[in-house]
Specification:
The structure is a homodimer. Chain A is α/β, with parallel strands linked by helices. Chain A has helices at about 5, 25-30, 45-55, 75-95, 110-120, 135-145, 155-165, 195-205, 220-225, 235-240, 250-255, 280-285, 295-310, 335-340, and strands at about 10-15, 35-40, 65-70, 125-130, 145-150, 170, 180, 210, 230-235, 260-265, 275. Chain A is globular, with a radius of gyration of 19 Å. The interface of A and B includes residues 154, 189, 197 and 264 of A.
Chain lengths: ~350, ~350
């Protein structure tokens, strides 16, 4: 049982998507009776505070605040050189040098500052990607009264999450766009389609299971509920929401994508994530062993993306998308919720 | 429209599974009003003739005769040496030498003899894996009145099949056990979960679409039909049928498998196929670049399997299984059909 899932009008969660939306999208989704999500990984402490203040001010609706639960890794000089070796030709083409690489990876892990914000603003749901934070942090999150949700990409991960304090498991299938939430078995070989992952996780844990990956229209929502999901989490469809920050080129590409036009790549952050093929992926990926560990690869890749986009070129932009991108259509968040769940109420 | 699909009592096809069944399974399935399939790839000409004679004798029900539409490749000495180099330690452990490798790969392609059999026995459905045979052969198959079905693992392949004469497309998703039917894009990166592949193919072609991969219970059958499938094709569930030839160790392993316990490997035939992890796959695979092209790798791998099994060891046996193996339960073919489709009639 999940108090939050039970309180929703629609069994639908808008997936948190760092840099693809701010507070407007989750606020608009929340107003419909579905659950909106904030992407905590995109904020520094001041930004997070501001976002949470806005959620509180507009308040009344439950929402989900998502964090990445990774531990920030380090990379030695040789690893950095190897990764820059992959990028050098592109850097040179855009007049960039290694000095243009910012420090950090652009994605914040859950830390003491974030925890302090959570304790201050008490979001109804705190979800994690890449496992769960350290037990003492997790305890303090739970002490705020928040439900704790986390993503599993295998049965093994789902069982681990149940044993380590999660309240709800999000079954993230192979179809899903964006970063794979894997944390025990980080290999594409281990990843399952939703038809298999959802029933297998549902049978393996007592927790409610949310289906994620490949759910882009009403038929898929019904199919996922029929396979035992308590709710669905939908990302790509909301990239086309008027309230999202998705770039026009990204919006256009999503609507014409076939499943095979998407691929899991580690080029943009070091973490494996599904997005649309582009020149960078074709030439240097999709998986490149030299990419620095998540999120460090993102610093150099981000510099390249910014330089290219300044010239109107999206060859180096991560256009995240799930395998069902081609089913998505633009509209307001409310229209998208209606299209997905119009015939279904909890 | 498919005349055959319209004639079925249940929208269910028992997948053809070479070496896992003979005529008994498709005959038993056919009697229920679902569609049974014969695996043509496991027969030489005399064996095929005998199997078709039996299907005719027991006749009355439509059935599907499946062929592999690959062109038999060749491998030079260096390629053979490289592949044997991978296998040598195992060969030595079982007292085998290179002389114990039989010629051929153990899987017959569709050829003139098979065509002659088809013209003589006129099976109602001829399905192909790995694309379609040469146009002149395909024409002669169609001239027998047979419906021609074939598998697509991408939208691109589905469109190609429609343009090249198929009557029905089987959407073979990433979840599926056994050999991937891919023929245009042979890379795991291009492969989609059924939640994405099925609607995408359904939207891209006018032909009826059969859903394959991840369908192992009644909930999955309903979900696939809800996503637009005209029928489902089910393999792994029928490996547990009393009428199948599946070995006891394979039957036992299927029922406890998690999705992540299966993997796509090329070790057993050179073609990519999903089965249960074992020692051979962990040590030499799952994908090994030295494996000879399909089906040639199967000769040496088969010799190893036979020697190991003689000692009661299944470390080198391909235990094919889809990602939803763990949902499958033993029974007669009729009971399995009832379990899958009891509540559904066409």
């Amino acid at each position: 049982m999940s108090r939050i899932l039970s309180s929703l009008r629609y069994p639908l969660i808008q997936a948190p998507m760092a840099f693809a939306h701010d507070t407007e999208l989750p606020l608009a989704v929340g107003k419909t009776g579905a659950l909106g999500s904030l992407a905590g990984a995109m904020y520094d402490t001041a930004g997070l505070e501001k976002a949470l203040a806005r959620m509180k001010q507009e308040g009344g609706r439950p929402y989900n605040l998502n964090f990445f639960a990774h531990r920030t890794p380090s990379a030695d000089r040789a690893q950095q050189d190897a990764w820059f070796g992959v990028l050098r030709p592109y850097f040179e083409a855009y007049g960039l040098t290694e000095n243009d690489i910012p420090s950090g990876g652009g994605r914040q892990p859950f830390d003491a500052d974030a925890l302090a914000c959570v304790e201050r603003y008490r979001p109804p749901v705190i979800s994690f990607h890449f496992g769960l934070p350290a037990p003492e942090y997790l305890q303090r999150v739970k002490a705020t009264g928040a439900e704790v949700w986390s993503s599993a990409t295998t049965v093994e991960e789902a069982v681990w999450l149940e044993q380590n304090g999660a309240d709800v498991v999000i079954a993230q299938a192979w179809e899903a766009g964006g970063h794979r939430g894997w944390f025990l078995n980080r290999h594409p070989d281990s990843q399952s389609g939703l038809f298999a992952l959802l029933p297998a996780i549902r049978n393996a844990v007592r927790l409610p299971v949310i289906a994620a990956g490949g759910v882009s229209d009403a038929a898929a929502v019904s199919a996922a509920l029929g396979l035992g999901a308590s709710a669905v989490q939908v990302g790509t469809a909301f990239l086309l929401a008027d309230e999202a920050l998705t770039k026009p080129a990204h919006r256009a590409a999503i609507q014409t994508a076939r499943p095979e036009d998407t691929v899991v790549t580690n080029l943009f952050s070091g973490g494996a994530a599904r997005g649309l093929y582009n020149r960078f992926i074709r030439e240097a990926g999709p998986m490149n062993d030299a990419a620095l560990p998540f999120p460090l690869a993102g610093a150099a890749a981000g510099a390249l993306k910014a330089a290219a986009e300044k010239q109107g070129c999206y060859d180096f932009s991560p256009f995240w998308a799930g395998q069902n991108a081609g089913l998505c259509r633009p509209g307001s968040a409310a229209e998208i919720v209606e299209r997905l769940c119009g015939g279904i109420e909890c």
